[in-house]
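Blackboard transcription, Thursday session:
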Amino acid sequence: MSTLDKLIGDLVAANRILANEHIVDGFGHISVRHPTDPSKFLLSRARSPELIEAEDIMVLDLDGSKQPGDDRKPYLERFIHGAVYERRPEVQSVVHSHSRSVIPFGLVGETIRPVVHSSGTLGYEVPLWDTRTKFGDTNLLVSSMAMGRDMADAMAGNNGVLMRGHGSTVVGKSIQEVVYTAYYLEWNASLQLQASMLSRNPINFLTKGEVDSIIGRISDGLPGEGFSRAWDYWCRRAGVAG
Amino acid sequence: MSTLDKLIGDLVAANRILANEHIVDGFGHISVRHPTDPSKFLLSRARSPELIEAEDIMVLDLDGSKQPGDDRKPYLERFIHGAVYERRPEVQSVVHSHSRSVIPFGLVGETIRPVVHSSGTLGYEVPLWDTRTKFGDTNLLVSSMAMGRDMADAMAGNNGVLMRGHGSTVVGKSIQEVVYTAYYLEWNASLQLQASMLSRNPINFLTKGEVDSIIGRISDGLPGEGFSRAWDYWCRRAGVAG
Amino acid sequence: MSTLDKLIGDLVAANRILANEHIVDGFGHISVRHPTDPSKFLLSRARSPELIEAEDIMVLDLDGSKQPGDDRKPYLERFIHGAVYERRPEVQSVVHSHSRSVIPFGLVGETIRPVVHSSGTLGYEVPLWDTRTKFGDTNLLVSSMAMGRDMADAMAGNNGVLMRGHGSTVVGKSIQEVVYTAYYLEWNASLQLQASMLSRNPINFLTKGEVDSIIGRISDGLPGEGFSRAWDYWCRRAGVAG
Amino acid sequence: MSTLDKLIGDLVAANRILANEHIVDGFGHISVRHPTDPSKFLLSRARSPELIEAEDIMVLDLDGSKQPGDDRKPYLERFIHGAVYERRPEVQSVVHSHSRSVIPFGLVGETIRPVVHSSGTLGYEVPLWDTRTKFGDTNLLVSSMAMGRDMADAMAGNNGVLMRGHGSTVVGKSIQEVVYTAYYLEWNASLQLQASMLSRNPINFLTKGEVDSIIGRISDGLPGEGFSRAWDYWCRRAGVAG
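(Written on the board underneath:)
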């Protein structure tokens, strides 16, 4: 199997996993940068993640343009992906979701920060981006490169951004890493929410040193072991080949 | 297949979807206005949504009367549907449910308003209707046209109404739209509840301009794409043909 | 099929339903009064509800004694059932469970009262019973008729009682009714909990008149329709014949 | 079947049960002390619990060393298990998990204590252990015997310990008991959290006398009945032989 075919297989599996683990539902999407042409990325045509097959995967330019002769309908919000790949050369995969425990934080202006080692891959915090600040009253969808770039700028050097009244976007250096981070962002938000409800005591977040230790571990290639252990498990649960 | 048969097929599928997505359980119902006679509507005989087949669908007049010769038992609360079709000519489909995150708002007099773009189809807010105000101590069921009309009046021009100590009713221009709105009302309530528990900060609801932008999009026919994407996904999950 | 065999079939189905709907887990039990001898009742041998078959059903005297020649091991807590049948001649079926949303109320001394029409079958409120008051430091299990009677006295004329640090017991005039009430007690507790977390506003409980209207409806035999509609649905979900 | 083979079978079943009941997910592990050599214990190679087969089980020394000739990759955190077996001769089985309701307590410094009879096997309370106190900024994983011993010391004579920003570890005298305790620790945390959110009233925890009564019951061998009833149920749900 070619590198491209293998990557498309992983992308299809990732769609199924994200649906099966309730990170995406009828909406949401995951992309991966093209393995040989960093100015392009792979993303399904407009379809619910659970239903996606290899034949649905399209190649898009970073500005969201389709390739000549492809008349399939892409996701309106493909600019989320293109803008992040444009701004962040090291990013290889992007997930946009409406996962449920994350959204309440944006509604009341509370910041999500890692509370457990599993979510240290997010970085120090998850900044909040609000369409209304620069674009006024819209339907909140990221429907242009201008909006996508503004969102990517808000994410800055972190690995996730919270989108007010909408959802979140996370990034990683591989499909396996970004699925892991998307899953543990949801989990982290749920834990942080429960801690806030349990007590008025301040939350004992991970320190910067602890996050650095976890991120450093990734740089050392070590948590790749964690990514692949979880990936194997999620593949089994979703009924797809690993 | 005739238009009527197609609509009955969609109505049966909608019942299964609403049960499978936990919007209804043993109770709750969905109806659709008759495709050629707007003074009638289609609704199952009194049965749990998950069990409904095409043969269970009855034709009712807007006042809840059965057609001559039909000796099946209709839902007691068919007046919810008839009264809404009477008051709102543009409405084509109605869902009544006890979906769980919605009810607490009526118990403490808090108003549900859209917090995410997905629930913008509800309109600006979900008004509260209380049987006790006009009808005193009852078993809370909508058992007459007088009660149904009072509920429909409380909904006014919005697309949903909260029923104190009971559940909610939502409306739409198609079966696909009303299933979408019923699903996202539940989700919106859950998010608004979590946001209220997370912080004493005021909630950043969608503005009227944002809701107008989403509703306008519907008028333009655009979110039909969203309705059908979700519909295809929910059909797959519920094991019914789309 | 004899009346007794039919009743045993319903009792087995009820065990499966309660497990499938997460009202009981590995622990909990449901009994029914003997159809021809009101001084006896039917209850499974000590087994998890999900695993119970017709052959597991034992006949017990109201004081918990086994019939001569039956060497199977009964539940330690059979006194819960016997004492209720002794104190309340009209009761035909009893469920004891650890269903999860109910227990927190006993831990902080808050009273569960019906907030929706579906749980009106509980009566005006669910009194709290605490083993510690009369029996001091025990392992909290109802291991004697003295404890069972004390619990039944605390329930008084209501249809449910909350057991501090343990669970709850509900009663009904049929297997179908008590399963319904056990299910909606859990649901009511969950709604009341969410309402308490949502706002400091007082909760708008059902009035006594509303509960009387619902209970009266039962006396009129009307909600029997509701019991059987839900029963058919739960049987389908649990994969048992109705 | 030999005692060792039987124990390995139970260990595999326990992994499946813990995954199926959502106590572990892609991460977490359960071990058992070697039945004939108390200076060794049995633990799977580094794999997600749901996927573990008998062939994955390794024998480790208490200091985490592998046996000669075994080139499989063990869990990094095997020191959690070894240190507990070293410090607590009576302990026969250990579970480490990230079960979700437990973690928030460590984030805000609230203590988990038994609120229901089912979780009395935990002992009087679940102490909090924080890597940061002695080891500073780390990635929070228990990656040495020094860390494992520090954690075991924090647990003292209790049957569980909460690990800040990470998860928890529980111990028991058999695989069946430790699975039971791991399950009811999660449940207890969930109930205690709900009680805290429901009311500002103080929580009515089990008294020391009540815990003693439950623990004493274990010493008498009685709750073995409870352990095996739950075990049979969990085996059925997980699709493994009991």
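Lecturer's comment: Strands of chain D lie at 29-33, 40-44, 57-61, 93-97, 128-129, 160-163, 167-172.
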